[in-house]
Amino acid sequence: MAALLEARRVTKAFGGGVFTKSKVNVALEDFSMTIQDSPPSITAIVGESGSGKTTLARTILGMTPPTSGEVLYRGTDLRRLDGDQRRQFLRDVQVIFQDPYEVYNPFYKVDHVLEVPVANFNLAPSKEKARALIEEALQAVGLRPDETLGRYPHQLSGGQRQRLMVARAMIMRPRLIIADEPVSMVDASLRATILDSLRDLNEKLGVSIIYITHDLTTAYQLSENIIVLYRGSIAEVGDVERVVNAPEHPYTRLLISSIPLPDLGRPWEKERVIPEHAGGRMTGRLSCQFVDRCPSAMEVCREKAPPLFQTEDHRAAACFLYRDRPELGLGDVHQVFAAKSSVPIEA
Amino acid sequence: MSAVLQVRDLEVAYHTSAGPVRAVNGVSFELEPGERLGLVGESGSGKSTIALALLRMIRPPGKIEGGEVVLDGTSLLPLSDEEMRRMRLASIAMIAQGAMNSLNPVARVRAQIADCFRDHDVQLSNRELDERISSLLERVGLQPSVANMYPHELSGGMKQRVCIAIAICLSPKVIIADEPTSALDVVVQRQVMDTLQVVQTDIGASIILIGHDMGLMAQVVNRLGVMYAGDLVEIAAVSDMFGDPLHPYTQLLIGSLPSLSSKRLMRAIPGLPPSLLNRPAGCPFRARCPHVMSRCESENPALRQVRPNHQVACHLYDS
Lengths: 347, 319
Prior knowledge:
The structure holds two protein chains of two kinds.
Chain A lengths: L4 E10 L10 E11 L6 E5 L6 H8 L7 E6 L2 E2 L5 H10 E4 L14 H10 L6 H14 L4 H4 L9 H14 L4 E5 L7 H18 L2 E6 L2 H7 L2 E6 L2 E7 H6 L4 H9 L40 H5 L4 E5 L2 E3 L9 E2 L19
Chain B lengths: L4 E12 L2 E13 L4 E6 L5 H8 L7 E10 L2 E2 L5 H7 L4 E4 L13 H11 L6 H14 L16 H13 L5 E5 L7 H18 L2 E6 L2 H7 L2 E6 L2 E7 H6 L4 H8 L38 H5 L5 E4 L2 E3 L7
Parallel strand pairs in B: 3-8, 3-9, 6-7, 7-8
Antiparallel strand pairs in B: 1-2, 1-4, 4-5, 9-10, 10-12, 11-12
């Protein structure tokens, strides 16, 4: 059976063109990934700003066409979905956006954003049931219905608006939720509540989740598999336990060592880190994207872009440090994803 | 050592059509010279309101209802608007959340820093101005060429560093950083926080760091205060706060932090913070507190010192 959603060698470039002098900005290059209908999965996509993760979200949602490559929903290219298929796609794949300010129409009360999908997709048989459904969803994300409903977007804080978006995605009971930084503006204890709700959706209702974030800690807590993006291509991919506990790609190592731990016995390492330069991705695959900041850079890194090398059953890193391992084709990335763990998570 | 900033019984309320919302409910604390004090709390706990109140930037329907703020011996609340304007940036500065979005998109960096000097009557020739701006940018780890750029040409981390440069340009005594790195990834965050600490030592300022990332607080601040529903419920040296948290909310908060060492069910604190609109009597945390007693229903506990350099507002510690 065709996969629920599949990205095949998706490349997205912005700018450039015949009449402008502006550089081409390749936000995402040659990206492939597959989400099956079942078993439901949780995949984290981690990267800093400029890594291409939001472009990725927008491309696999069909909000922007890829420059090359394709995105398939149940085997059909998103650009060629007919009316029925499109309606089904919109029901099956829900998104939670990063910016809780832009997504709201300021003329409508926030109730609108919850009432419309309930009405459009006939999620409740009566007005009372609809209201109950909405209130339940709000409570699951830590919002008080009496302090949220009836308000305009500007009357809610950023964190409240963000949570409202999560509630909306949950009401729809989709097959796949793409969450782009859904809790970045929310504080620690509430984050736990919301991520718990997302995990519940996955475990109890079989909803798959693509969790896009730069917060490795919550990515680790929530997901089974992780893709680390750097400047538009995959740096490392695989089982989240392995990638986080024994990172292989120098960029992943940098990310992990930069996380501030709430543990005074484990201070930030004092190594000097070369800051990013103001330019974007170096176009074309002429060298490793990370070469200017990499403490282990070798000559070959400046001459060609590294392919993915499969270092373990459930791990691959795009780094010449591992060039003695077998290469992994970009279309086969899902092979290193770990199967859903049957070991219960300790409480 | 005399504190550089003293806050006593600060009260701020927002007067809405539904009634007054008590955002800051009688908060007191002190900031020592050269110190980094963190303020954590859920959104809505009052921490950003405190920041705005210290700078007297609360706008209607918000109002500072009571209390005292003394900066280096000068009481800020009774100052005239013009006197307060002169204090801002020169004596007390702020780096706001999403500060990179508050840079003027149609002005080059140079012009935005030059504005600060001009607004505070610092007379400099063009050459002196250029030198000062270059040296400021270098201090925050930016190339002097950044002065000629527009904000959109800079990355998030670079914009935030420009905001730090603006905040330190007149060497204020107190810098308030309200979630300065929440929009940045961990690598850039570490660099920006390193920069902030270096410049703070350079100019001898004190910092109040507001946020909700306990990990960041653990790595950066000397002392930490915990806000809940407008109250300061605990304040202690950061090692004591993590090593021996006293307030039940602090204990639960630390327990809810996700870790990288083991996957476990994230322990959310059940329930929601109370409505600040109709604030019930007694301790604001009582509805969610695992140790609630009958006294908590009627009496709001006062912040008291129970250990050296460790204050907590909780009836569990009232003898």
